[in-house]
Amino acid sequence: MATQNVSEEQLQSQFTYIDAVARLLGDKHPKAYTHTFGCQQNEADTERIRGMLSEMGYEMTDTPDEADFILFNTCAVREHAEDRAFGNVGALRHLKKERAGIVIAMCGCMAQQEKNVEKIKKSYPQVNLLFGTHALWRFPSLLYRVLTEKKRVFDIGGEDDIAEGLPVLRAKGAKAWLSIMYGCNNFCTYCIVPYVRGRERSRRPEEIEKELRELVAAGYKEITLLGQNVNSYGKDLGIDVDFADLLRRLNAVPGDFWLRFMTSHPKDASPKLFSAMAECDKVAKQLHLPFQSGSDEILHRMNRRYTAEHYKSLIADARSKMPDITLSSDIIVGFPGETDEDFEQTLKLVQDTRFDLLFTFLYSPRTGTPAASYEDNATPQDKQRRFERLLKAQDEIVAEKQAAYQGKKLRLLVDGNAKGPEYPFTARTEGNLLVCVRGDDIKIGEFIEAEIEKTSLRCLFAHKL
Ligand code: 5AD
Ligand code: SF4
Q1: What pTM was computed for the model?
Q2: Could you give the residue ranges of the DSSP H alpha helices within 70-182?
Q3: Ligand 1: which atom is nearest the Cα of residue 190?
Q4: Which of 148, 301, 396, 413 is spaced 20 to 30 Å from 326 by Cα?
């Protein structure tokens, strides 16, 4: 069945609640604080909630102590993220004692899970509002209930649909997120995402293009298209469009900007996509393509549905079409049953491919996923040892790759303030490498030409030309 949008009437009723909350708050100008855990999708969701809060009359603050409304947008991908969210919420008990009127809310992937809802109901009485990923667009009516009924509100219901036209308050600067699809159908056996974010659903290409045009008009220079698996974009739309087609359409939008996208799945990434990337001048030559493990046996048990050989052939095709492409990947170390031999194959793939950036994770069992009940023989020490070998091998590769940038002249996008006085700004290369820059008349949000004058493991250093 084709993806449904939340109906116009349902959305309109939320705008009515935004007005109703605004009337309740009157001219108090209350303050709202938000904290986001996890991925870019969560950051994009938080920007929607901030948009709604701002329309209600809340002012944003970076200080939870002075906030009247506090929100934690949570992540469930690994246990560590969950522990941090619980820790943060736990620490707010005193605030609630001092100022009984504040509203503490939790949303996101953790909030979508029944077991966490029970835990919060029982052990975190300071939380007065909890809503899951599917209920995000109903936030105004939920907050209205909290404020008027003076009781705790929990909502983890909802359909796999899409809400277009919600307000948004984006971070200022050079970069913006643009969600093109939600959910995931892949059910990798370690991953909780399909359970908390529902099935894949794509936004209509014309809606995405409209939003991109608005972002470009607002001055954003780097727009990242978001989805759990962007390569299956469009499959649910019932029209003849795939991700490569979408890239070409968006590339035709006038303006000087870079388009990035994440995340890609190797089973769906195709030569067609790499051709589109190579031919589209605004699409940054950068690819995040998680391979997770170099062992076919482990890949099979992860339900990834590709082999290491296939992965290598994709990289070879991408590099043949875009020789300067920068590549990054995600790896899970210590998946249940991973042997030293399996791990050696992961290490070999890393050494053969020579990624520019790696995100390496220790496997974290997630209740409700198949892998959580797989037998696991490796000890935590074995896993830690593998993890460290991987980091060391990757650092050696990165050191060589970074050194090769010495003296190069590159186009950079200035995106923030750096810490040190010598190089006051941060910037990104087209390949998304971090650069610290110095020079006259540098402004955040502008492209500059620069020359790399020295390099370190994590940063390139440049002066503006
Ligand atoms: N344990 C460790 N890492 C995980 N990831 C997803 N689920 C888990 C898990 N249970 C990693 C994958 C994914 C990235 C976003 O997080 O590498 O690509
Ligand atoms: Fe999780 Fe796999 Fe979906 Fe990525 S593709 S969100 S790892 S299930």
Answers
A1: 0.96
A2: 79-90, 93-98, 114-123, 139-149
A3: 10
A4: 301
